[in-house]
Amino acid sequence: MSTLTETRPLEGLRVLDLSQYVAGPYCARLLAEQGAAVLKVEPPDGDPVRAWPPFSSLDAEAPGLLFSYVNHGKETITLDLSSAEGQAEVLEHARNTDIVVESFRPGTLDRFGLGWDVLHKENPSLLLTSITNFGQNGPYRDYRAWDIVIDALGGLAYIHGLIDGSPLTHGNPQAQYRAGVVAASATVAGLLNRDDVGEHIDVSIMEVESTTLRDTIPQYTYMGAVRRRSRTGAGGPGSITPCADGWVIPSGFGGSYSLFANFMGIPELADERFETGEGRQRHAAELAELFGDTLAKWNAVEFFEGAQSWGLGVGIVLTPKQAIECQQFLARGFLEEIETGVGRTAAAPRGAIAP
Amino acid sequence: MSTQPLAGIRIIEHGQLLAVPAAARMLADLGAEVIKVEPAFRLDTHRQTTYPDNDPGERFWDRGGTFHSENRGKLGLTLNLRHDAAVEVFKDLVRVSDVVMENFTPRVMPAFGLDYESLCAFRPELIMLSSTGYGQNGPWSSFKAVGPTTETASGLAATTGDEGGVPLLPDIPYTDYVAADQAVLAILLALFRRKRTGRGSYIDISQVEAQASLAGELFLDAAINGTVHQPRGNRHPAMAPHDFFPCTGEDRWIAIAVSSDGEWLDLVAAMGNPSWASDERFATLEGRLETLLVLNQRIAEWTRGWDAMELMELLQARGVPAGAVFDARDLVLNEHLHARGFFEWDTPPAETGIPEKPYPGAPWRFSRSTHGISRRAPMLGEHNTTVLSELLGYSSEKISELQASGAFGGPPTEFPRPEPVGLPALKAHHRVNDIDSEYEARIAAIRAKYSGASN
């Protein structure tokens, strides 16, 4: 079977990665994974994300694990882009590269004398991928943001969390990670269209989020309805529920509740009140009580695998620690060793695009 | 010369729900010709939700707002693949197509004889992508999955939620979009590789893995330090304050994230230098993290008197990262997004009775390549005849035969007309905050203001 890894798509291409934090570096890392040679340029003090937790307890000198993960597979040099020497050196690299990835605030590259016009003149086939919080134009162009601010403005936070509590952000920089993937796609789209002429690609992290809110936007544009957070945080009853040793999602997702009743030995579940989504919403409290008492006795993996074998599309919560020991991840070779310090490696997810 | 990156590329999308349909619409936006193959005997969920003004109408299956949003740019073909004749049509399509994308459980395509190896036998340069919950192999490969369950299995959800509480997921199938992002990247890479080598490829996307790959540092933390992750609330290990704070009005909030001691001083100045803020414990990140509960309470007392938008403008003017928490109305009417031409306008066909509306556009702009909604979403089976006669060159007799044999599937009139999901019921269950009777006028006003903007 032919897969992308036999001949990696970007073999022979060069990437100059001027970016910092998560989105830009992850974009460049994905390009490296697909065969490109990536040179990362860091400022003299280093990429600030080197100092972000979590850290390795085994190696006090090593950078943070987020830095190690999103910069895996790159060569790194240090240059001061605010100095004439640093700028000249970057320009020299840019003349001999296919792609530049950057995540400075809009206008910064111009101030360094390394803006799109200059780069395009020096290297007409170059692709410049700029990843910023709000894009290269518009009233929020110069606004400052981190992931939690993107989640606020992008529309995700308002529908994340419990109705009686505050909005919620993900437990890691999801918006930046996703923007890294989207920027890698935009870059490859640019490559497909490049011929001899490159272009400037403008990726907005806010828009990465705002374009993927499913029915949230049509609910307003079609009916004037403003969707908000749910009671359970996961879109209705049957959502994340504690069991004996963890959490599961005891929802059939299409499976019949009478099947659930048989599998779990709770005859009360075979009730027409629970057969439709609206009914389950209406009787959420009773449902939670029925599930809760019985689920408290179940082991998470036994419940998950058992119910799935009955055709019930239930879910399980895995911590990362459980995931790295999970047979499904191991069977697919999903983990790979990456460098996390000098002479030290640890298991991390490989990219999702592999055999 | 400006061109679409995927001009001349034909994609068969045999998708359902979200992960693959969303990916295919992004590829359609980039210029690919996407033929969406649907079974007519089982309507896509998105054809049965979010009707205009909550009225399913006569042709409810063509009136779903989410369907129009996630399936714009595609041609629509219905095929009942339980019929051998329909399977042959699918194969004929593969003969003239570049890409097949599907997101059914791993047994489905082989059962139809439409797995990669079978298709490759006559179309060796084919690119095929399968997107499933857990992947094509391994002990969980046949398990059913949806966005919420793949997010929980990915490791990410374990760290997301209120401190001390259960994991909490966004109220959308977030991980479907994460998988869609990866599918778009994979198809573009495969096309680029084919352009360079002439060779096709098979891509196996696991939604759980797609999400886990966006949580690498958590996995490393577990592998190296043995960390067992718990929901961490809105805390950040390197920023404080870092949370959502209440503002005036019902359920209005602002996110504030202070990433340096300098930004803390900027925030203090914006608050008018209150005496409590001069406490030296607050001067360093370490001190602010240690006193986070008190700190957050103090800030909330201040934000409570502010309008979220005005406070955002004040804080941003002082360089403090802050953002009002936007709901759907805020987004659709947002000046920044309209100034960037983010929303794209599209009119479904007259039969649907849906007027022109804005749809979320793309997260990218190109200085040279063009992209955007190329055509509206298809009505069910709308292009059956066009695709078969114009693309495959079938005679009208052959198309009639297929029609008579049931290869396209039964007429959608066999489905019971759904009841409108009552907005009062939604409101009663707190899923909907507000029903805005002025929404059309508001959208028209923002459109008029930015009619010159375009991407």
Describe the protein in words.
- The complex is a heterodimer of chains A (355) and B (455).
- By secondary structure, chain A is an alpha/beta fold.
- Chain A has two domains: 197 residues, 3-Layer(aba) Sandwich (Rossmann fold); 76 residues, 2-Layer Sandwich (formyl-coa transferase, domain 3).
- Helix content of chain A is 36%, strand content 15%.
- The termini of chain A are close together.
- The model of chain A has no long low-confidence stretch (mean pLDDT 92).
- In chain B, the strands form three sheets. Chain B has a six-stranded parallel beta sheet. A three-stranded antiparallel beta sheet of chain B has the order 7-8-9, with helices on one face. In chain B, strands 10-11 form a two-stranded antiparallel ribbon.
- In chain B, helix 1 crosses helix 7.
- Chain B has two domains: 282 residues, 3-Layer(aba) Sandwich (Rossmann fold); 137 residues, formyl-coa transferase, domain 3 (2-Layer Sandwich), CATH 3.30.1540.10.
- In chain B, a hairpin with a 6-residue loop joins strand 7 and strand 8.
- The mean pLDDT of chain B is 94.
- Chain B is of the alpha/beta class and 455 residues long.
- Classes of the chains: A alpha/beta (355), B alpha/beta (455).
- Chains A and B meet through helix 2, helix 6, helix 7, strand 6 and helix 8 of A and helix 2, helix 6, helix 7, strand 6 and helix 8 of B.
